[in-house]
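Subject: design request, 161 residues
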């Protein structure tokens, strides 16, 4: 086991860090693991409150400031990406290849869509060049459709893991 001496009073083992260079080393804490697990297990972009609630299943004392701090570090490392929607708080997702999103207007959950229209360039006016496309589909997710059909009350936050 390699041990890194970073201060006169405290030793850190190399398995406590992510990254390859000393400059990119970030402590691999239990809090960070819980936050990362929440994002990976959910399979969809999450708000900070959803991340906090899911991560608190592993560490019940986890606070919102710790979540924000770790989200910033994970984003700087390229492990997660921030998803910005007009008029909404940012959400975070595990960094993936190009994709689009579906937003449920009932429960406000955001889902990834791994499909892209083939003929999107045909929508451009003549002579225009498409550099990037982002498509946001809006509607109702399967869970909310089922709840509406059964008359189930949805005044609670349902977190899917």
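Subject: RE: design request

Done. Sequence follows.
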């Amino acid at each position: 086991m390699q041990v890194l001496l970073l201060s006169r009073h405290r030793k850190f083992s190399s398995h406590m860090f992510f990254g390859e260079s000393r400059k990119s080393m970030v402590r691999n804490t239990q809090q960070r693991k819980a936050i990362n697990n929440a994002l990976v297990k959910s399979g969809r972009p999450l708000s900070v409150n959803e991340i906090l609630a899911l991560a608190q299943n592993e560490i019940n004392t986890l606070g919102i400031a710790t979540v924000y701090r770790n989200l910033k570090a994970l984003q700087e490392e390229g492990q997660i990406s921030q998803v910005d929607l007009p008029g909404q708080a940012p959400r975070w997702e595990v960094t993936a290849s190009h994709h689009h999103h579906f937003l449920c207007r009932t429960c406000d959950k955001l889902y990834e869509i791994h499909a892209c229209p083939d003929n999107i360039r045909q929508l451009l006016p003549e002579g225009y060049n498409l550099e990037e496309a982002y498509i946001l589909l809006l509607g109702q997710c399967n869970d909310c459709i089922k709840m509406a059909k059964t008359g189930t009350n949805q005044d609670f936050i349902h977190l899917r893991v």
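DSSP finds four helices and ten strands in the chain.
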